[in-house]
Each structure stands twice: as C-alpha cells, then as structure tokens.
User: Which sequence fits this backbone?
C-alpha cells in the first residue's frame, strides 16, 4: 500500500534559506501536512517574501532566535553550502531533527564530526536531501539490481549536465571557492550523480581519476544578490571576478566488485537544462534513466528486444510503488521526490524508527565529501586516488 500523503500529528518545522530550494521544501511539507512555523534568511528583509508566502510565519533574526523557539522540532537547512556545517551542528546540539540540503558541508573533517554528533543522538533524524533517490523509477532500478535482474554489475556510467552558467555573465555564490575542496560542478551536481549511482547499483566508488576544467576564467558578477538559475539579470552593473572553480569535469571510476564506470558533469552544456543520466550495465542486461524523462526506464538485453518501461504503480516493485502516489500516465517529478523523502523521514520520526534509516543519512553525506576531496586531489596530482 502506498504511504499516506498527510501526516498527523507532525512535528513543526522551520526552514533556513528561502532562495530557490527553500520554497520547494515548504511546498512539499504543506503537501504532507507539516506546518512551517518560521524561516531564517541572510537577513530578515530577504526572508520576508518567503515568510509572507507561507502565511506570515515568524522571521527569525538569527539562528539563536530560532534555537530559542520551543515550537520548532525539525529544521530544513537550505542555505548556501559553506553555512551547513555550523548551522547543522548547532541544530543537532539543540535537539532538533535536521534535513540538510546537499552537500552536508564543504570539508570532510567537519562532516565526519557531524556523523559522530548524529550517532550520539539516536533519537534525532539526521538526513541529507539526496532527493533524486526518490524518483519511483530510480527505486525500481535499485530493486531490480538487488534482485539480480542485471546479473553482476560491470559498468556504472552517466552524466549530469546543465546550461545555466554557460554565459560568462552568469553568476551565483556557487562560483566562489567554498573553502573546502573548492569544487563547484562536482560538489553541486556531481554529488547527486555519485550518490544515486552508488545507491542504485549497491556498489561503492573505490577510486577516481578526474580531469576538471574552467571554461570561463573570468565572469561578470552582478552588483547585489543573484538567484540560482536566475540568468545574468539584464543590464545590471557587473564587476569582473576571476574564476577558480570548475565549469565541467570528467571522472573515471573503479567501483566495488570490479565494476568500472565514468561520469561527466557540466554547468555550461547548452540546452541541457538539468539532466541527470545514469546507465548501469550488467552481465545479463542493462538499465538507463534520464531525469528529464523520469517516468520512463530503458531496459537493454543482448538476446531479446529492449524494453521501455513506463512508471505504473501496479507494475512496480514494493519499494518503488510505496514512493509513487499517482497512477501510470500521471507524471511524477522533481517536487514529488521532496515529498517522498520528507514522508520517509517524518514517518520514521513518528514511528521512532531512526536506526538504519532508509533515507540518505549523514554518513552518506560525509561519503560524498570524501569523494569530492579525492576528485580534487586526483585532478591536481593527475593520478588515481583511492578512497579508504
Ligand atoms: N536537492 C536539490 O535538488 C537542490 C537543488 C538546488 C539547491 N540545493 C541545495 O540547497 C542549498 C541552497 O541552494 P539554492 O539554490 O536555494 O540557493 P539560493 O542562493 O537560491 O538560496 C540560498 C538562500 O539562503 C539564504 N541565506 C544566506 N545566508 C543565510 C544564513 N546565514 N542563514 C539562513 N539563510 C541564509 C539566502 O538569503 C537565500 O535565500 C544549497 O546547499 C544547494 O546545494 C539542492
């Protein structure tokens, strides 16, 4: 049976960050019956439109004021990456459940300490929002591979490509070095791909060989804030900024069980708006999925016709059927993945089942930081780098 859409009673939530993705969290929470009681932005003024869109909820002046609000039991962290560590640390210390946007932080020694802190508080949910796992057909791929439908997995490959930073006049906080591995395309979208590829295939990336490049050595930074996916903002005055984070990259992979693979990321690939492509080859067959056509799965065979499987709850494995709420032919997409991930977390909170979570954990988030650091070292030193 599919999980219920609406939780009752649900813990009350607050959201940090009201840019592109904070409102996506708020919308998904409304759909499952969770009340958002307050928001925190870079300033009260910038948070105002977001708070108003939620019915004039509280605008916190700072994190301390949020921490002092006893009505807040769970916090969604949707602020820029370099703020995650400090904010998540304080939230967990204060006894709040946390759902943090990816990446969990920008330095692995910090995310390691968050993993430790979370494990010392087993009564709290500590999730990272790798939402792409919650597309029903990604769950279906995982279930079929675990069942052995592909035989032994021998190849895991794909890409994540976007074009919103193609022009040298495109700018966003992501372009600035983050003070950690200082990766951008890999940290921002490559971590989504690596999380999904490992989770679906059931295989860990054990070693990487990376080649990264900067297409625009200088970009024009608009005076004042620029929104994610916001374009260059017309005729606003700009200043030149030297770029040190990669626009694109290719990474060769060695995975568990002897499997091999590769992926590429680009934020400057014309026409690819936001496309994650994952294909997994096995000794008995293969499967491929495209995030821009998320309700279709390609299944390949050597000795019989290939298949195109359309999402239909009646034909899905149990895990995938539980994460789909619409009949076949009624498209489910990006916003639904947030709803499904949040339902998973909030139901486990309600049932006090926070051990061995099915949702992406802080340990998963930390693993992505280790991968980023390995990729940065590999590129710098032009060699294979293993993960311990
Ligand atoms: N899971 C996904 O699909 C997905 C998609 C986009 C972004 N993200 C992640 O979400 C996070 C935010 O990205 P975005 O695209 O929404 O960025 P954005 O720039 O559009 O929004 C960031 C928001 O954070 C606010 N902010 C800045 N300083 C703050 C502070 N000290 N406390 C609280 N809020 C503060 C800003 O005012 C702004 O509203 C990033 O970590 C990003 O990686 C995830």
Assistant:
């Amino acid at each position: 049976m599919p999980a219920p859409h609406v939780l009752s009673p649900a813990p009350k939530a607050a959201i940090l960050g009201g840019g592109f993705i904070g409102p996506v969290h708020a919308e998904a929470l409304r759909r499952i019956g969770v009340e958002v009681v307050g928001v925190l932005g870079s300033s009260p003024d910038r948070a105002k439109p977001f708070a108003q869109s939620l019915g004039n909820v509280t605008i916190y002046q700072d994190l301390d004021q949020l921490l002092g609000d006893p009505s807040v039991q769970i916090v969604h962290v949707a602020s820029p990456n370099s703020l995650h560590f400090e904010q998540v640390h304080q939230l967990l210390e204060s006894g709040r459940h946390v759902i943090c946007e990816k990446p969990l932080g920008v330095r692995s020694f910090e995310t390691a300490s968050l993993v430790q802190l979370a494990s010392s508080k087993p009564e709290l949910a500590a999730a990272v929002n790798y939402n792409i796992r919650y597309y029903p057909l990604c769950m279906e791929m995982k279930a079929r591979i675990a069942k052995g439908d592909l035989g032994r997995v021998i190849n895991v490959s794909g890409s994540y490509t976007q074009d919103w930073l193609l022009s040298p006049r495109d700018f966003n906080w992501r372009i600035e070095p983050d003070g950690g591995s200082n990766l951008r395309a890999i940290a921002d979208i490559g971590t989504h791909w690596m999380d999904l590829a490992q989770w679906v295939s059931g295989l860990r990336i054990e070693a990487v060989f990376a080649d990264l490049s900067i297409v625009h050595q200088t970009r024009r930074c608009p005076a004042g804030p620029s929104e994610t996916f916001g374009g260059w903002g017309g005729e606003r005055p700009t200043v030149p900024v030297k770029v040190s984070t990669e626009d694109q990259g290719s990474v060769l992979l060695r995975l568990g069980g002897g499997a091999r693979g590769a992926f590429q990321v680009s934020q400057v690939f014309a026409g690819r708006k936001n496309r994650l492509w994952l294909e997994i080859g096995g000794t008995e067959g293969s499967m491929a999925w495209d995030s821009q056509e998320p309700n279709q799965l390609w299944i390949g065979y050597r000795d019989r016709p290939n298949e195109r499987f359309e999402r239909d709850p009646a034909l899905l494995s149990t895990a995938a059927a539980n994460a789909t709420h619409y009949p076949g032919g009624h498209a489910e997409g990006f916003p639904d993945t947030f709803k499904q991930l949040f339902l998973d977390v909030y139901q486990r909170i309600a049932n006090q089942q926070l051990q061995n979570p099915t949702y992406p954990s802080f340990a998963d988030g930390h693993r992505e930081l280790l991968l980023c650091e390995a990729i940065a070292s590999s590129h710098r030193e032009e060699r294979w780098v293993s993960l311990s």
Q: What stands out?
A: The longest strand covers residues 153-161.
